[in-house]
Each structure stands twice: as C-alpha cells, then as structure tokens.
Specification:
The protein is α/β, with parallel strands linked by helices and 506 residues long. It folds into 3 domains: 234 residues, FAD/NAD(P)-binding domain, CATH 3.50.50.60; 115 residues, FAD/NAD(P)-binding domain; 107 residues, Enolase-like, domain 1. It has 16 helices and 23 strands. The strands form 6 sheets. Strands 1, 2, 3, 4, 5, 6 and 18 form a 7-stranded mixed sheet that branches. Strands 19-20-23-22-21 form a 5-stranded antiparallel sheet, with helices on both faces. α1 packs parallel to α5 and α4 crosses α7.
Length: 506
C-alpha cells in the first residue's frame, strides 16, 4: 500500500488496525550485535517464520515497511472472506422461498454496513499480527523499508542488522495488464477495493482467476452489474474444465456477465465513468462502468531490497530459490509469494515452517515434498489438490479417474446445495492418489481429507475404510473411496466369490 500510515476510510476500526499493524510513533529498538535470523517482510510467511524461530530460542529481527499481516490480513483473505460471507447472506435471503421463508418485496442490501463489518472484523483479527504482540514474543520489530547492504546485513531506518541467516518474505502485489490507458485511469485492485463504502452500480473485472471470480460474484449478489473479462476461453483456466464451468454457471445465475477470449483494446475515462473498448466477433464494442477491478496477475515485491548487494538472484517470477528455499546466497532464504508459484496464505505458512527447519536444523526439508491444496471461494467453492488428469498424463503416468456428483449425496440434496462433484485421480492399478477436485458449498473443507491422505501416503482405500457421519456432505469423499473399491472386484474375483457363496448354500 502506497501510504501505510493511512487507510481509507478514516474510522475507528481502521485506526485500531493501524495501531496494531503500523503503530503511529513506533520507535525501532537498538539492534543486537548479530541476529540468528533477520526476516524481511511481515506477511504470513514472515510472521510465521519470526514467531516460530523466536519460540525456539533464536534471536530474531522482523522488518516491515508497510502493514504487518501483509496482504492476507489487510487486503486479501480476511476482508475478502468477510465480504463474501455478507454477499452469501444476500443470496440466502433472495433464495429463502425454497425453504418456506417468505421475504417481503423491497428488501434492501446495505453495502455500507457490510463494509463496516469487514473493517470491524479485520481490526479484531489484527491483534494476532500486531507489532506489540510480536515484541512480547521476543522479536525485535523494525518498522521501515529494509534493504540489504551486504551478504549478511540489512539496513532499516539508518540501523544495520547483521545476521547469521535471513529470510525474504516480501510477498507480491497486483500487476496491471498491458492495456492501453490502464495506467491513466483510477482502477481498483485488491489493495483498494476494500476501502469502498458505497456499492458501485456498474463494475468491470479484468481477470477470471480466483480473486476476480470471488469478488465478481460477491458484488453481483449485492446488486452491482458486473462484467468479467478473461483472455482465456473459460474462467479459472488452470482448473478442471467441468468444475470451472459449474462455477461460471452459478456466477451467471447471480447476474455476472462474461466476455471470454477478451481482447481489450483500451480503457478511457469518460464523463459517465470508465469506458472499456474490446473486440468481439470482429467488431469493436464498448462498456461504460463506474469501477474497474484489476485481477489479472501478481508481481513479486523485490524492488528496493538491493538484492544484488546480498548476491540474491531474482527474475520476473520472483526470488530464485532451490528446493530447500535457499537463494544464491547460502545465508539467505525466501518464503511465500515472493518466490512461490502457489500464492496462497496457507502455502506461505507451510513454506515458513520449512524455512525454520532448514535454517535451524541440520536435517533439511524440501518444498517439492509439500502437498498444497487451494480453493476458490465462490459459491459453490472449487477446491483442488495435486495433479490434474492432464498434468498426470503429461508426466507419463497412467491415470484412473473416479467422480461422484453432489446430486447423489443426501445431505447436499437436503441443504439445497447439490451442484458440484468430487473427482479424484489415482495411478492406474493402484490406490495412490495423484490429485483431486471438489466443487461444493464447502469444497475448501472437504478437500482436506484428500490432502491428509496424500500427505501421509495413504491411498484411496484408506478413505473407503474411514467411517463418515451421516448425513454430511463429506459423504462425497467417502463415495469416491467406494467407487475405487468396486474396481477391486475383478471378473476373476467375482467368479471365485460366487462359487464360494454358492457352496455355502448347500
């Protein structure tokens, strides 16, 4: 964020937030002679690394130039999920008649109140990431821009922090797409959209990845006319095609309009708002909106760190690390969005724990061994872990796929949430799970069972043997195990069983 000392709007909740994550008048401590670990960046990866290392007895310094908590707390997971929950309440009121609840006409959705709730909850949660809390944990917290001055030193606010090891955890930011005029108009990003206090009447979302889809659906449920532009021919292009299409259909039912294979030519400011010119079917069309939300990519935060002085290599994708998250400088590691293709809070958390081990323990762990799930929090949610069928086949693996649909799961039917499916890929001839996709109201929760199995080397037969309470939507995972188990009944085994059972009747 460009001005960490101010977050719009200036209300009690945002002042509480700033008091925690960028305290006014903060005085940096006097540095130790030498730190076991200097952590640059206080997002999820940095906070977990600093707290974990300090808890093990290391002398730790934590440097943050903007807001402690990083994107997740301030402009990412926390505010977005609070907004999504409010939008879901709008949809539940809208659809209440199917459950016998009669809602009077003219129900008003108060976006301003919903955003106040977002700020209130964010401020409440911010205590966990506060400068004062980490000081109490034994971490020396430095507020200011840090930069490397050598292979074993970081400078912040005129003070030099010498280290045995350092970790770069500076994260990533929204990256504007190369569209003519985009840099000359006031566009929203995840860093500014949660400062809105009034509902836009018309909004364009550029990018149909997770962030774009989540926010597009949320604003549409409040009543905004939302149009989503995506260069690919489908939304969520890295996901299972059938799964992504179910999400697109659900978003369309909420009023979201899509322009796929979008060729955006220009964005201009207009007296009536912002005008987007795009080519469709050989003709140039235009759309006038009040707000444009950019959700088309992320760029690593490597500027201003003087990484060259530390001998740390980087490129457009971020800081370059090996499988142990070590940079070209063996004293310096990196974790989180600044170096990972998995730009998720939980991935940053897992990488931070790996770094703590690799910095402080002689037994090293590899990031390639991590099994990292992810979830797009639309309604329905789309969660995935491991390889897709296409990715598995590209690696030369023979794959067998099992699918079970939510409209065959009793609890999903009863809940009115029967759109979706569970799908798992196993190595052919075995029960070894290669990957899975779940589309369901709580897919992010359901995918964890599959992730647990993969992490611990358990096959799909272990899922089959696990007793699940009835009725729950987790039954979809159980049914995937059932589907695999039925394949074990080969024609030969069936014949043998029939003969044996026949003999028992005599």
């Amino acid at each position: 964020m460009s001005d960490p000392a101010h977050i719009s709007p200036d209300d009690a909740y945002n002042r509480e937030l700033l008091a925690n994550v960028h305290p006014p008048g903060w005085v940096n401590p006097e540095p130790a002679d030498r730190y076991n670990l200097v952590v640059v960046g206080a997002g999820t990866a940095g906070l977990v690394t600093a707290a974990g290392a300090a808890g093990l007895g290391a002398r730790v310094a934590l440097v943050e130039k903007s807001l402690m908590g990083g994107d997740c707390l301030n402009v990412g997971c926390v505010p977005s999920k609070a907004l999504i929950r409010a939008a879901r309440a709008c949809a539940q009121v809208r659809d209440a008649a199917q459950f016998g609840v009669r809602i009077p006409d003219g129900v008003h959705y108060d976006f301003t109140a919903a955003m106040e709730r977002v700020r209130k909850l964010r401020a409440r949660i911010s205590h966990n990431d506060s400068a004062h809390r980490f000081t109490k944990l034994g971490v020396d917290v430095f507020i200011g821009a840090g930069r490397f001055t050598g292979p074993d030193a970081v400078e912040v606010g005129g003070k030099t922090l010498r280290f045995a090891k350092a970790v770069i955890c500076t994260g990533a930011r929204a990256s504007p797409p190369p569209i003519t005029g985009i840099d000359k108009v006031p566009c929203l990003t995840n860093e500014t959209v949660f400062s809105l206090t009034e509902l836009p009447r018309r909004m364009a979302v550029i990018g149909a990845g997770a962030i774009g889809c989540e926010l597009a659906q949320a604003f549409a449920r409040f009543g905004t006319q939302v149009t989503v532009y995506e260069q690919a021919g489908a939304i969520l292009p890295i996901e299972d095609a059938e799964a992504a299409e179910l999400v697109r259909e659900a978003m369309a039912r909420d009023g979201v309009r899509f322009v796929l294979k979008a060729n955006i030519l220009q964005v201009l400011k207009h007296k009536d708002g912002l005008v987007i010119y795009h080519r469709a079917n050989g003709a140039v069309e235009n759309l006038v909106v009040d707000e444009v939300l950019l959700a088309a990519g992320r760029a690593p935060n490597v500027e201003g760190l003087a990484l060259e002085a530390a001998g740390v290599l980087y490129d457009r994708s971020g800081v370059l690390v090996n499988d142990e998250l070590q940079t070209a400088n063996p004293l310096v590691y990196a974790a989180g969005d600044v170096c990972s293709r998995f730009k998720f809070t939980h991935a940053a958390d897992a990488m931070a724990r790996l770094v703590i081990n690799n910095v402080l323990s002689p037994v090293k762990q590899k990031v390639s061994d991590l099994v990292i799930p992810w979830c797009t929090f639309t309604d329905p949610e789309l969660a995935r872990v491991g390889l897709s069928e296409e990715e598995a086949r590209a690696k030369g693996l023979k794959v067998e796929t099992f699918t079970w649909r939510l409209d065959e799961v009793d609890r999903a039917i009863l809940d009115g949430e029967d759109v979706g499916f569970g799908r798992v890929h196993v190595r052919k001839g075995t029960d070894k799970i290669l990957g899975a996709t779940i589309v369901a109201a709580r897919a992010g929760d359901l995918i964890s069972e599959i992730t647990l199995a993969m992490t611990n080397g358990l096959g799909l037969s272990a899922v089959y043997k696990t007793i699940h309470p009835y009725p729950t939507q987790a039954e979809v995972v159980k049914r995937l195990g059932d589907a695999y188990n039925r394949t074990r009944l080969t024609p030969l085994l069936k014949t043998v069983m029939e003969k044996w059972l026949s003999s028992r009747r005599r």
